[in-house]
Amino acid sequence: MAGAEASTGSAQRGDTLPNGDVYVGNFDGLVPHGMGKYMWTDGSLYDGEWDKSKMTGRGIIQWPSGASYEGDFRGGFIDGTGTFKGVDGSVYKGSWRMNKKQGMGTMVYSNSDSYEGLWNEGLPDGYGKYTWAAGNIYIGNWKSGSMNGRGVMQWINGDTLDCNWLSGLAHGKGYCKYASGACYIGTWDRGVKDGHGIFYQPGSKIPCNLEVSECATNNDGTSASSSSNEKVKVGLLFILQNLCNKWGLRRFFHRPRRISNGTTPIFVDDSGNHLPQDLPNKSLSSNEGLQNTDVHKDFVYEREYIQGVLISEQPKGKHSGMLDSGETQENTWQKQERGPMETIYKGHRSYFLMLNLQLGIRYTVGKITPVPLREVRSNDFGPRARIIMYFPCEGSQYTPPHCSVNFFWKDYCPMVFRNLREMFRIDSADYMMSICGGDSLKELSSPGKSGSIFYLSQDERFVIKTLRKSELKILLKMLPKYYNHVKAYDNTLITKFFGVHRITLKAGKKVRFVVMGNMFCTELRIHRKYDLKGSTQGRSTKKQKINENTTLKDLDLAHAFHVDKSWREALFRQIALDSMFLESQSIIDYSMLLGIHFRAPNHLKAATSHQNTLESSGITSAMDCSVPLHCEDANSSKGFLLVAHEPGTTAGGSHIRGSMVRASEGGYEEVDLVLPGTGRFRVQLGVNMPARARKLLESTDAVEEYDVVLYLGIIDILQEYNTSKRVEHAVKSLKFDPLSISSVDPNLYSKRFVSFLERVFPEQ
């Protein structure tokens, strides 16, 4: 700008800058100040207020592409409230911060979809309402532009799905209400039904607390009201935002950056404009037509799905085998919604215990981590190898103040467990954040048979179990040999221990804990869990007590699992080594915890798709026999693929350690497991192991087969064959076959255990 034209006061004039930009308006000295127009060399034009060379105040900016913005500017940025019109016809009206949509706003997309709600960093994030041009509506939580958290989807035909959502797909517990009056309560996995659920026919008595307008809840447990209340909520947020902008102070920032045109978020809505009604499968439930609701209007059906495929169904009533017949429908829903665990909250019976545990672990892990890593010594083991610290509420020279109760903390063998965590590739910072971060632990609603209570970290990587004093003594006694065993065998299936602690409260009550790895920490849904000992006495589960969260026993297992020959050899080689170790420590009562994820074959998926099409047209599966529910051709499809391993492309478990297994199908190379529509996983011994499950159907000679993914681990390894167990063996032997009871000599227990598993995993 020419120095001759400079002035000390505010004056209006025009000038061409050295870079070719043009400004016409008021100046304060040599800088734009007040009202003025600025044109960049690329054709962009701003007309509005300036403050000391920065666009600040109300203004309009237009781009050569045809996009425009009218509203607030601060310090050179689009900041405040305003309206942006994109070249594609999309319009956003709402709050901005630093050139990005932030806060409350409404977006109308070029395809006539609209979103009204909270934004963060230019994407829907928080609570909002999305309306598709076709009329479908979603009201609920968002994260980074996708439906995430609790929300309600309502289709134009009246179908409604109230569920948890993940990355735009229904994922978790929820329920759908169909326009016909039918209702399904269950779980979803990545957009499809998966697991157990309950189906209410049209005309059935549906639990009153399922009304979407009254009972939809958010992640924090607050109520999500009806659509009219949502409009009030969003409107109040708009008013609050406008008041904040009206009273806000303008500050100095920088020249604006280009902002991209608004685009329509990508949502996965494979269901079209409605949910398939999923009327009961007549071949499984009844021989009469379902349209005769006068006859069957009170029928309620228990169902099980695998990746959207209905695999079992039975009427729920007085003789139902899944839930106690005395339970009401309302109680059934409440139990399902709560699930097998609950987050510990302030006022919970375990709240102070959780705070003490988190304080202690944070202290001892933080204290031991800076110590240089070294080989363990003999004095690192035993009850005298410990850290003891007193934690008063007001804090001390060594401990921080806290809001729990006074307690003593004891950490056993800290150097040994520090090395074990390193051995199992557990990062100390991740370990502390997982257990001691801002989130609460989860308490399992059903404690173990021994009376132990189980807790899970929020990310479910770690299991924390309370111990009896006798179990603690056994663990400390066997710890040196345990350490050597897991060090020698990378692929051991034995429980992985990461820490042993004790809390002593003021009243003298002592609570002992052990921290272990959670072998079911996987993004795959575990459809069945089995606790297998190899004994038969008392090793079945009463049908009245079976539900989705039940861990079944030996006699409940009806499948045999066929795995790759080389994997089977490696598996039983490791089982034999682990059993020999436990036998050497005189341990019994251990078991193989088996988790099974079923994959739905493609021919069943096709059948379900065909069935849904018929049902949406008002035709039940009983009227159409073109697609059978079961197919005897085992080779019709596979639920997974094995491909050559590629480092960095797989999702592994939380505590994977050791070498990957090699598959004959992959030319005896290390392989990854690819599950279509799900992901890619590392295959290791006992982790993400694909297999073929076979079950002989009792009514026919047909064999039911499924592709499955297995998770295996040896648990409950802290019971010695002591005097009380010998007495138990002698007493039970008078009534039962001595070989069928669990309490037997460690040598016999080990042999029986391996022999039973060989039948579970037969040679091909």
Automatic annotation (TrEMBL):
The keyword Transcription regulation does not apply. Residues 347-761 form the PIPK domain. The keyword Kinase applies. Keywords: ATP-binding, Kinase, Nucleotide-binding, Repeat, Transferase. It holds the Pfam family MORN. It catalyses: a 1,2-diacyl-sn-glycero-3-phospho-(1D-myo-inositol 4-phosphate) + ATP = a 1,2-diacyl-sn-glycero-3-phospho-(1D-myo-inositol-4,5-bisphosphate) + ADP + H(+). SMART domains: MORN (SM00698), PIPKc (SM00330). This is Phosphatidylinositol 4-phosphate 5-kinase. The lineage of its organism: Eukaryota, Viridiplantae, Streptophyta, Embryophyta, Tracheophyta.
